[in-house]
Amino acid sequence: MATYIADRYRLKKKMNGDGNMASILLCEDTDVDNDERGSFVIIKMFNKPNIGDEDLQKQVFNREVESLDKLNHKNIVRILDRGFDESFQAFFIVLEYIQGKNFKEAFEDICKYEYVQKLELMEQVVEGIEYLHKKNIVHRDLKPSNLMFDKDGTVKIIDFGISRLQDTFYSDYTLAGFVTKNYSSPEQLVGKTITYQSDIYSLGLIFYEIFTCTHITSRETMDVSMLPVGMQNILVKMTKDESNLRYGTISELKRDIEKEKSLLVQTRYISLGFTHNVTKRLATFGYIEKEETTLALKALEEEYAGKCYMWPAKNKDGLFEGTYELYGQRFISYLKIDQRDDKRFTVISIAFVQPDRLITQKEIAYEIPYGVQIGGGVRIHYKAEINAQILSEEVLNHEADYISHRDEDMHQKDITGKWKNILELEKKKINQEKSILTYHNLKINEEDASLEIQINTDKAYELNYTSDEMLQMTTKKKIHQAVKQRNFSQHLLGEDAVGLIEAGKQKREEIIHHYIDVGHMREFSDGRMIIDMTPQVDYSNIASSGEISISMRMAEIALDRQRKALKSILYKENVNPEISDIIFNPTIATSKNNLMLTETDCKSREIDKSKLISLEKALSANNMFLLQGPPGTGKTTFISELVYQILYGNDKYRGNPDAKILIASQSHVAVDHSLAKIKKLIPDIKMIRIGILDKLSESSREYTLDIFCREWTQKVIENCKEALARYKQEIGIDESLQEKNSIINEIESINQEISELIYELEKVETELERVNILDSKWQFVNEKIATMKQMVAIKTAGVTEEQLSQIIDEFTENLTVLNDNLASVIDESIALAEQKLELQNRYVSINEKLGVKGHEVDEWKELLGISSNEDYQQVKMCIQNALKENKKKYAKYSKVESLCKEWQKRVTQGDGLLQESIADSTIVGATCLGIASLRSAIEFEFDWVIVDEAGKATPPEILVPICLGRKVVLVGDHKQLPPVVDETLLKLQDKERMNISKEDLELSLFEYLERSLSDDCKNILDEQYRMNPVIGDLISKLFYESKLVSKTSRKEKTIPLKIYESKPLVWLSTAARPDRKEEKISDSYRNTCESKIIFEQLLEIDEELGELKLKKETAIIAGYRGQRDRLTRLYESDYKARFHNMSIEINTVDAFQGRETDIVFYSIVRSNDNGKLGFLKDVRRLNVAFSRARELLVVVGDHQCAQRRLDIDGQENPFVGIIKFIRDNSDDCMLKEV
User: Fold this and answer.
1) What whole-number percentage of the chain has pLDDT above 90?
2) Fewest CB atoms less than 10 Å from the CB: which of 309, 342, 363, 569?
3) Do 844 and 761 form a contact (C-beta atoms < 8 A)?
4) What is the C-alpha to C-alpha distance for residues 1079 and 1166, in angstroms, rounded to an integer?
5) DSSP designation for 708
6) Could you tell me if 1187 and 1035 are in contact, meaning their C-beta atoms sit under 8 angstroms apart?
7) What are the residues whose beta carbons fall under 8 Å from the beta carbon of 946, sequence distance 6 or more?
């Protein structure tokens, strides 16, 4: 539900520029359909002032309204309504909506105005003020932000919040404190009486800035000497310190402006001089008869008589050095701003080019909207002459816009190109990991469900298979097609020419080369492999020779889903195409910004200010909203409340109970956590969890699609049975007779299905006959080959060199024609082959169904005690005769029974149930790739897609759920762990074609969007509730520019351990120990010294916890995998049984994102003489590791090594800041040598 003011004006957006006394709101007048002003209005909602008593608000309101009620002028904003809103307990006035910029916002544009345009602008403002003064009103607060342009360029004077009606007496209050001092008159600043001359003074300051294009820093340094004399006199008189020396009335000022304006010449043009070099070149190239200035002048006037275009000229290094190219009718002129007269250009040279180059350049150049005046020598400056500086700015701005649009196109190609390349590298890596080998001599052993093959290699190292890996082999029908295509290519062009169509051949093999998962390797020796087949494998479809490899089916499926998502975004095939535009240009994302919520509008009691603002922005965003959630700030609390608001809303936002919402994430844990939080807030919400059961949390398993469908199906069947039983009892059916009749109906129904299957089978047979045109296609190609061979044989006998050359030319021409036909034939043949295989599969499938249906008929006949068709017809007739007496009764029952059975059949078969299940649920939870696991036959779209942990997903991965949503909310934190990527991909890339860096792999879509989205479409949660405030302050200072505020209590979040003097942040340094150094283990590191210290310290903590009667969760986070393994072995072998008061988990930082624990021990691992830290310098990993701790964070390692280098690889060393924080906060932190 939207926010309404006075039950009439619907809030659309909170505007910038709220004053001291009022909020400015853009609203829609719901009582207006479409009149001359439209339905949009501006409402000034008056805030409660912090000065004086409450009557001041009413005083201010009355003054403004009484001022505006008396006004009706084209340059004055109109008042449309006024009143008092009960819900906000505030006065408001309704003003016409001015759709445009104010003078402050448009200052740079105004500065580009010609002198005459600025005079016209001044004239409009003065006319409006003159009208006010005649109405006995002094504005009192004239400033650039109170002067606006409407959409037609008309000036509107706004904001009479402190205007004073001369004939209204509110003597008890003064509003002088609300004036804007920058543009106040001297008498206003000292509190003296304000007169009409005060407005004139303020206008003088405003237009001084406009005419000089400078902002006033000091009134004593104002200089008008560069302006025309007439304007000098006007501004000096307007800004006299003594009010009696200024213009007596605004009308006098208006007359002086009109006089200055009348002196101007109105023709607009740019002025060009030219050098003798130009005259010389014109004569040299025959454009004039001789080197004479007058002839050159005439030639140039003719050249520039029509439309002209300009573009910045570049030197050989691509740099702009102040020269411009002017494109006329026949040649290019090179211009520079005249050194003696910077208001005009000088043509320094000309170049004669082909007409097509001129046309090409004009397509991108700036079309000059002015005339061109050619002249030389001394000039008279006319007032309407366009300053050369202004035109040069226009040309440079045009170039910048052109480059921007070009760069946007290039950016889209660049970013999608990188994403495509990364997926291509992923595919390449998968193919390598598959370890493809060729095999032959397939033998099937049905007795022990195994198969035997001969591997085509005698190199043992080429076989990387293990008994745990699923293997796949080539399917029989597909390999046949591949071989046929390859043989054809060799036959047609010969072995040497096969390479000419290699790309096409590779594409064909990818299309037609299919595999089947067969089982696991039992043994391998001497090239002989035995494989235990899986029970469901169709071994009849395994090719006798082909390829065998490790099955990477799941990885290939995931990759395919990402490719499809990327294609959908690229070609705007997603649910909301506007989101595609935003992804490639995040700056265009918009928001209605029309919502103001309070905590009472929320269901959850855990909504703080930053969450409230985030909810406003998320609900107001038109297409996309991004929320950064630092550690412990309650991202899932926000998500659950957002879901509630989407569905049920509040008094200010209209919810939609029928909305469909997808909750997605890169990890199952995050999805389950969000769903649990939503379920807790909205207990009766319908949700479905999509995913593999083993990977789901216990709380989410009851919502899985399988369980949902099974329960729902069972409920439907039970309801049908109960309904039939009740109906049968109501009409008094003979059950035995009815049961037999039901069997008859079932047999008839199956017979009908058999008839339909037979009809379908006939159609398939017809289609198969049509597909046989494939043979005629091959015949065409073979005939062409035979003709070419015959031609070569005949024409090469005894030919001369010249004749041979002619034959080669003819052969080449025929080959070209053949290639064209070949491409067409091959493409068509492939399609037909695929179609033929599909038809064959359908043929087999239909026959199988016919067999099943025939068996079902036989089973039903057995229940009737018959077997032959003749007996069936006789029983059928007897039952039908018996039922004639109660025909209507049985007809009704049969119809009901048929409907029930049909419904039961629908809910137990096919995709209909899945479609119904999703349609019946409000929330669907899935991983980013898991949501794509639903069959393509199921059509589903979501009103909202909310992605948690969005910073950890790769761009193609997160695009999968994004494609499904009308509105998208991304929740994450790019300052925590980046997407998990395999750096080995970098080694696989083709350096000539790709340029993928580690940064490209780790850049998430979340971080990419966060850089450019407007503030209206993004926010950050800035209050943390997890960590001890000491730990929270460290995280805030190091990683979030001190923006993160701790809302936790030091007392409640501290464990009173004597060992650390009750301090929550401790560094145990090994710097003084001789055994402190790191050990390199393969591609990782470990540190035995730190391992021992960690467990010794934990044992002491465990003992103290026992004395305190406390139980705590502890995480030991290792910087390296080698250290994790070392700690785990040590724990399992020597320490596990010795801990009684704490549970301990050991892992690397990647395993802990999204989790929290009471105590964290962080092992630095690295200790060396050079201060090398490896990837420990990654602040994102440190952020995650340190922010897991609720109550105690203990860092163990060599603090001297950690801070030895101030920066590493150009990045600031984070450990320097950590150690400094500990030392600066010694009352709360400890740095201790151990």
Assistant:
1) 40
2) 363
3) no
4) 8
5) H
6) yes
7) 639, 642, 643, 661, 662, 663, 664, 674, 968, 969, 971
- Cβ atoms of 1144 and 1114 within 8 Å: the answer is yes
Locate 992 and state its tokens.
């000539």
Report how far residue 1046's alpha carbon sits from residue 608's, in angstroms, rounded to the nearest whole number: 12
Half-sphere exposure of 689 (CA within 13 A, CB side): 27
Annotated catalytic residue, options 29, 55, 81, 141: 141
**Cβ proximity of 471 and 465 under 8 Å:** yes
pLDDT tens digit string along 71-102? 788 899 888 888 888 888 788 888 888 888 99
Average pLDDT over residues 903-908: 61
Q: Which of 52-66, 282-296, 652-666 has the lowest mean pLDDT?
A: 52-66
Q: 3-class DSSP state for residue 288?
A: coil
Annotated active-site residue 1083? The verdict is no
Residues constituting the chain? 1234
Query: What is the rounded distance in angstroms from the CA atom of residue 569 to the CA atom of residue 420?
Result: 12
Do 639 and 663 touch, CB atoms closer than 8 A? yes
If one counts every other C-beta atom within 10 angstroms of the C-beta of residue 825, the result is: 19
Q: At what angle do helices 912-920 and 887-908 cross, to 10 degrees?
A: 80
Say if CB 7 and CB 21 are below 8 A apart: no
897-916 in b/e form (b: 16+ CB < 10 A) is beebbeebeebeeeeebbbe
Q: Token pair for residue 851?
A: 């067999």
Q: 232 is written with which tokens?
A: 């000098």
Nearest C-alpha neighbor of 981 from the set 954, 959, 1019, 1005:
954
Does residue 705 register a pLDDT over 70?
no
CA distances from 489 to 390, 501, 787, 1224 (A): 66, 9, 17, 77
pLDDT in tens, 1028-1083: 999 999 999 999 999 999 999 999 999 999 999 999 999 999 999 999 999 998 88
CA 1198 – CA 1170 distance, rounded (Å) = 12
- Non-local (6+) Cβ contacts of 1057 within 8 A are 1101, 1104, 1192
CB of 182 within 8 A of CB of 153?
no
C-alpha 923/C-alpha 687 separation (Å) is 4
